[in-house]
Every structure is written in structure tokens, then in C-alpha cells.
Amino acid sequence: MDAMMSASREFFRQPSGEKQKCSNLIDDGGKHSEVEGYGNDKVVNQDEGLSWNDRLHLRVEPEDERNFTKWPTHPESFRDVLLEYASRTKRIRDVVFRTIAKLLDLDEDYFLNQMSNKDPGFARFNYYPPCPRPDLVLGMRPHSDAGLLTILFVDRDVGGLQVERDGKWYNVPAKPYSLVINLADCMEIMCNGIFRSPVHRVVTNAEKERLSLAVFYAVDGETVLEPAPGLLDDERPPRYGKFKAKDFGLSFD
Ligand SMILES: O=C(O)CCC(=O)C(=O)O
Ligand SMILES: [Fe+2]
């Protein structure tokens, strides 16, 4: 974990020109951007406000779709460290899926069986510079994660992540060597809302920079999502319909 965080810190500390070698902008004068690479998120709606962060977004799954041209070459260790890190988060993902299935009295492999070897996984390195006016701008605006599961490695010293419940925001503490596991929208659907995909945001800090790394596991656009039949009966009707992930933008493809 230390190696992953220091590789990330080293990447973001480089001069802008070096980071732009991994840019997410498409070569058309910077008018369009793609999901992968270094930069900022695309602003879809002017009213949503900007987020005070830089990010590097890299596909880690499926293995044969990794695009190493977007992966940093500095620090030199970056690629190997991320490959090792991603292989471990994938194992954690599987343990969490099995545990959730057991908690719900489903077949242990129910969620794993819903997945295909085309399902995407993305590593998103977030860098939040110190912000002179934390009262005016968020590090990341409120959202829920769209996929199945997010494994989030938060900064060991600097807090900022908050989770919403009943209209109130609660701080998620910064803690060394801890991972925050976030259930995302597609899992909420498959769990028929028994487990919820939380709305969360990041507040800025006036003095300190903050780093985090989210690994998102999602589903292929063709995956048909529906509440697990084993969770439904007359008293517990489905809260969600059946649909393809891509029809609701619930995939990264
Ligand atoms: O930086 C954090 O702690 C949260 C990041 C996050 O929510 C995301 O990347 O989706
Ligand atoms: Fe998130």
C-alpha cells in the first residue's frame, strides 16, 4: 500500500507537462476527452459545479484491455506496483461479493456468477491540492459510484471523505492502511436495495494536499441487471426492473 501511494504521489508531483503525457484529452485541440488518462472529469452539466481535483484514470480490467500507453512511466515502478495492487483488490472484491451473498442467504457465488470476464475495472488516482477557499468548493461533488463495488484507499493523514445519510454528512476518518469498501449502484439493484449505494463527496482542505485511490469494479454494458430472484417474495417485491447496464449508463464502456 505504501508503494502504491508513493508512486501516485510521485506521479502527481511532476510538472504539468510530464503528467500531460498521460493526458485524457483527445488530439483535437483539447475539445474532447476520453475516460482514461490524466486530467479532469468532463463537465456534463454546467450547474453541477467543478471539483477541486486532478485525476488519473486507468483501466485495470479486463487484463487484455489495459492500455499501457496511458500508464505513467514515472516513477518507473508505477506499472508493476499498480499491477500487483490491482491483483490484490480483485481478490478483495471476490471476498466481499461472497460475504455479501452469504449475508443475504444467497448462493455464495451468486454475484460472481453474474459477472463476465469482460467486466471493467478502473483505477482512479485522485489528487486534491490544498484549496484556499474550502467553504466555496468541494474536492469532489456528491455522487454515488455507478458500478458494483469500489475499493477506496484513503489518505492516511488527511480526511475529507463524507457520506450522506438522511440529509446529513458524516466524516469518514482518515486511517493508515485502511480500505473503504463502497457498494455501488449496480449492487444496490442486485441486492434489491437491502444494501444501499451511498452518496458521498469530498471536502477540500486549506492547508494540506490529499490523495486517494479508488478501484471501481463495474459490469459490461450488455449485462442484464435485476434484483436477485432469491431475495424476492410476496412481501419483498422487486424495487427495480430488469435492464441492460448500458441503457442506464451503469457501465464504463
Ligand atoms: O477521494 C475520496 O476519498 C473519494 C473518491 C471518490 O469518491 C471517487 O473517486 O469516486
Ligand atoms: Fe466515489
From TrEMBL:
This is Fe2OG dioxygenase domain-containing protein. Pfam families: 2OG-FeII_Oxy (PF03171), DIOX_N (PF14226). It comes from the Eukaryota. Belongs to the iron/ascorbate-dependent oxidoreductase family. The lineage of its organism: Eukaryota, Viridiplantae, Streptophyta, Embryophyta, Tracheophyta. Residues 1-38 are annotated as: Disordered. Residues 10-21 have a biased composition (Basic and acidic residues). Keywords: Iron, Metal-binding, Oxidoreductase. Its cofactor is Fe cation. PROSITE patterns: FE2OG_OXY (PS51471). It comes from Aegilops tauschii subsp. strangulata (Goatgrass).
